Amino acid sequence: MSASKLKVQGSSFPVEGPMVRAINDASYTKRFRQLLPAATPEQRINNLLLPTLLRYCAEAWGFSVEDLKSGGRVESVTHARFCAMRLLRRLTFCTLQSIGRMLWETQHTTIMHGLKRAEELMELDPLFRANSEAIEAELRAQFPTLVRKP
Fold this sequence. Notes:
It is built from eight helices and two strands. By secondary structure, it is mostly helical.
């Protein structure tokens, strides 16, 4: 085996040495992005924005991300889920189907219901409104290139 190729343990696929260095060294990040095909917007949102959004929504209501993903129907957990749905719809160009895929593999009709409930809660629940607006502001500041303009 040549010096420029490595084998990933448990895999028979050779990995190029520069690629391994790019993954392991932050200084190669720009070059690494050039070597990889451009990610779709949904993949970028899934990998970068979604974990942060879910963590912020869970923390705002005092839950873990696992609680948010659990499928339980406790009111405060559903409020955190509705907030996540609303923010994904407001901050991205994702379709209802893609939001459903990103969140819990749900159908687009579930997302439609969640968005309707989120808008009702924005009008009726001051805590929901405050949490949602604070999370949105934080995400806009943290991911200015990923989120759409207001």
